[in-house]
Amino acid sequence: MSLTVIRPGILDTLQDLGRTGYSRLGINPGGVMDRYAAQVANMLVGNDTREAVIEVHFPAAQFLFDQNTLISITGGDFNAMVNDETVPLWHPMVVRKNAVLHFPKLQYGGRCYLAVHGGFCVNKWLNSYSTHLKAGAGGFHGRKLEKGDELPFRESNIYFAGLLKPGKELEVLKWKVDTGSTYKHPNEICFIKGNEWDELTGQSQQHMLEDNFIIHPFSDRMGYQLKGADLNRNNNTELVSSGVSFGTIQLLPNGQLIVLMADHQTTGGYPRLGHVISAHLPKLAQLRPSDCIHFKMTDIATAENLLIAQQQELNILQRACTERLNNTVC
């Protein structure tokens, strides 16, 4: 069982939740940009949340399925279609053998996720399926997907053809995920203060909290470069390099900001003004170049409560998806 890339996209890779524990060796965690969407994609098709998914950017690839397959698509909306039929996001669905999945139009969002029942049958590198492009390791041969690639996925004992109506290439199953709370107010990103926040001038602190910042076109999976008012420190002393993480907000020498993303370096020497809270990283991951960000400061207790609530929601979703899928296939 496999799917074949019949037209490559701009940057489509296999990713999971990342490889942890190797930062001391200079190897960043990597993984999906939107952990929430990737986990839900796996839940909808009955997978463990740590299974690999395809992270799709627009312009996106086209995929041919060589077997009847249960799939789900989550995250950004690229107007996904199976042959000539538009398919919904955040639903599980069965596609027939030889159906073609394509994404003809960008509606919103920065990336979407494709999961298949059983997961993709690829080897792990350092305990993760994620593609590390700089190292050329992990994922599918350590690179983005190209035309002609055949991605195998694990065999299933479920007879998915029985869920397809005669003459139909697609059957959308009757449940979906409500993501309203996770992506609410998409441009409002909360952060907690970083070590060098107090080094900003009062006026610069005010700019950061009151102004909007535009995501620069040069942004990528490593970091979002932001365009806004020049920010200044009271004392421009050099800093010793220290650890950084997904969501760290740094001040560049030109007075502009950069927010580190999934493929961030492991250490950095620029001032750390703040850290985007974990519960808002999914929103951040779905923003695109030219979108704006409005930063809002919060505290650690609030950040923890939001993350706990999000994780509790995911736990409930996983149990519900497993139960609905079991009832359907039985």
Automatic annotation (TrEMBL):
Keyword Thylakoid: no
Keywords: ATP-binding, Hydrolase, Nucleotide-binding
Source species, domain of life: Bacteria
Domain Carboxyltransferase, residue spans: 24-313
InterPro entries attached to this UniProt entry: CT_A_B, Cyclophilin-like_dom_sf, PxpC
GO molecular function: ATP binding; hydrolase activity
Key word ATP-binding present: yes
One Pfam family cited in the UniProt record for this chain: CT_A_B
NCBIfam families: urea_amlyse_rel (TIGR00724)
Name the UniProt record assigns to this protein: Carboxyltransferase domain-containing protein
